[in-house]
Each structure stands twice: as C-alpha cells, then as structure tokens.
C-alpha cells in the first residue's frame, strides 16, 4: 500500500505556527512587566548555574522551573487579554478569572523559588562558609 502524499503546505503551516508562538512571546515581553522580571530572574538563574557548575539533573530542574513560570505567566497574560476583550466593563467573574490566573503564576513562581533555593543554596552556602 502506498504511503499517502503529504498535503501541500502542511510543513509551511507548521513552521508558521512557531512564528506565531514566538510573536506571542515577544508581544508579552513587550507589554508585561512581570514577564520581563521573570526573564531577568531566569537569566540570573542560568548565569548562577553556569558559575556554580551545577550538574545536569539540577540544570533540568532549573529549566523546568523557568519553563513553568514562563508558561504560567504567558497563560496569565492570555487570560487577562481575553477577559478584557469579552468584559471591558468590570464584572466580578472577570475579576475572579484574572485573580485566579495571577494566583497560578504566584504558586508556580513560589515553586520555582523553592527549586532555586534547593539547587543554588547548598553550593552558595559552601562557598560562603569556605571563603
């Protein structure tokens, strides 16, 4: 049985979807102060990890924590934008949706902070005591 031919333009559409995703990240970075803060924190964590020479498993934990925070922040931004679109006037449910989305970011960011303390705390403490 012959393999079905790929639909023309399928690859082009898939590649374009990555472009839309990067455009969304760029738009969020340009408009969201909290996302820029998280970008700076991520850069600091990567720099600290490089300086301390953390092992591969700890790099994985740091990468997952950074990705989770960025993902939560991007979803929060989307929820806020969509809520503003469908409810330009104040509504209690719209406020609740925005508050819950922001709360999700807070929970993920606190989890990332714990990861950071567990990964970076011991080597920093050892360097500080050894200095």
Characterise this structure.
This protein has 131 residues and is an all-alpha fold. The protein has one domain (23-130): Helix Hairpins (Orthogonal Bundle). It contains 4 helices and no strands. Helix 1 packs across helix 2 (33-52), helix 2 packs antiparallel against helix 3 and helix 2 runs parallel beside helix 4 (92-130). It is flat, with a radius of gyration of 20 Å. 14% of the residues are buried. The model has no long low-confidence stretch (mean pLDDT 93).
Shape: flat
Number of domains: 1
Termini gap: 70 Å
By DSSP (H or I, 4+ residues per run), the number of helices equals 4
Helix percent band: over 70%
Q: Report the sheet with the most strands, covering strand number, pairing sense and barrel closure.
A: none
User: Which regions are unreliable across 5 or more consecutive residues at pLDDT < 50?
Assistant: none
Q: Which fold does the CATH topology refer to?
A: Helix Hairpins
Rounded to an integer in angstroms, the radius of gyration calculated over CA atoms is: 20 Å
């Amino acid at each position: 049985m012959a393999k079905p031919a790929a639909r023309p333009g399928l690859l082009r559409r898939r590649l374009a979807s990555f472009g839309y995703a990067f455009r969304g990240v760029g738009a969020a970075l340009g408009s969201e102060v909290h996302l820029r803060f998280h970008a700076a924190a991520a850069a600091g964590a990567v720099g600290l990890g490089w300086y301390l020479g953390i092992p591969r498993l700890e790099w994985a934990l740091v990468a997952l924590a950074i990705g989770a925070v960025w993902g939560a922040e991007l979803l929060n931004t989307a929820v806020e934008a969509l809520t503003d679109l469908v409810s330009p006037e104040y509504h209690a449910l719209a406020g609740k949706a925005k508050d819950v989305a922001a709360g999700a970011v807070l929970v993920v960011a606190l989890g990332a902070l714990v990861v950071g303390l567990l990964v970076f705390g011991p080597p920093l403490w050892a360097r500080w005591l050894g200095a």
